[in-house]
Specification:
By secondary structure, this protein is mainly alpha-helical. The protein is 56% helix and 3% strand. Strands 1-2 form a two-stranded parallel sheet. It is elongated and about 65 Å long.
Length: 298
């Protein structure tokens, strides 16, 4: 099957690598690092695109009206592998910069899908970080380190990245839909998992991102996705993200209420044993009033 072509022009090798990994499962991706080469590629390989753009603008007013380079175009160079870019691993400061930049770029794609909101996903990342920190306070021997908690929060920001590959009419119905479309909707968990596995399992950021993408719709009682796995298989990072998603939903629902945080905690307590585990709820309880600080800063 011939797939549509996505041309990415960016002077950052890292950005090309990331965007190539995101979209190579959906498109035939061509990456170029220089605008002239991108223009040449457009003229020689995407003449229908050129015609549509020209038709929408006055004559001679677009960059596409410039003549391409006379030389025979070279094939675009493949985007570099991220493991080659980070041979010594990715420190926390680097991961923070990478995710901030990545979120900014993905925000442009998210704006084309009305049901996706990058600001909400940034907020989710902040809530997940707080829950991971509180989990360690409550269970110091089995909780993540401070750096691991930060990485889990960064990774949670991209838990729904696979939704970019889901058709609009299915995406708009959301996670509560029934019927065969529900199965298609939840394919986004596998799409996200595959993406981050390809980016590099040796880097903790992408390891957390992969497991969160796959498991963030799995409940403590074993229901949810993936359906063929048990509750005991859910990674801690995904359990924390699942709780953060529920927190975010109820905080939005009870916003404006003077006792909003208390209502959220009571609602989540009713989900202990089904959606979240007792241990995760203890972390939620410990987060308490600190949740409002996270919401203000994201």
């Amino acid at each position: 099957m011939i797939r549509d072509t996505l041309l990415i022009i960016d002077d950052s090798e890292l950005d090309l690598a990331i965007l190539n990994e995101i979209f190579k499962g959906l498109f035939r991706v061509e990456c170029v690092a220089e605008s002239r080469r991108g223009l040449t590629y457009l003229h020689h390989n995407m003449e229908r695109v050129c015609s549509i753009v020209r038709a929408a603008w006055p004559p001679k007013s677009t960059i596409l009206d410039h003549k391409p380079e006379p030389e025979t175009p070279k094939a675009p160079e493949p985007a570099p592998d991220l493991v080659q870019i980070f041979p010594q691993g990715l420190p926390l400061a680097g991961a923070q910069l990478l995710c901030r930049d990545w979120a900014d770029k993905l925000g442009a794609f998210y704006r084309l899908r009305p049901s996706l909101d990058m600001d909400a996903h940034r907020q989710l990342g902040g809530i997940t970080t707080l829950l991971a920190q509180c989990y360690t306070e409550r269970f110091p021997e089995q909780g993540p380190t401070q750096e691991e908690a930060e990485l889990m929060g960064l990774a949670a920001t991209f838990c729904d990245i696979g939704l970019l590959g889901i058709p609009d009419h299915i995406l708009e119905e959301g996670e509560d839909q029934d019927g065969p479309d529900a199965q298609l909707y939840y394919q986004h968990t596998q799409l996200g998992y595959d993406l981050f596995r390809q980016l590099g399992e040796d880097l903790p950021l992408f390891q957390y991102a992969a497991e969160i993408a796959l498991w963030h719709h799995k409940n403590a009682d074993g229901s949810g996705y993936p359906p063929d796995a048990g509750a005991g298989d859910i990674p801690l990072s995904a359990q924390l993200t699942r709780a953060a998603l529920r927190l975010q939903r109820y905080l939005h629902y009870y916003r404006g209420c003077a006792d909003g945080t208390e209502r959220v905690l009571r609602t989540l307590k009713g989900e202990v044993g089904t959606v979240i585990s007792p241990e995760i709820y203890q972390a939620v309880e410990l987060a308490g009033d600190r949740l409002q600080a996270v919401l203000r800063n994201t």
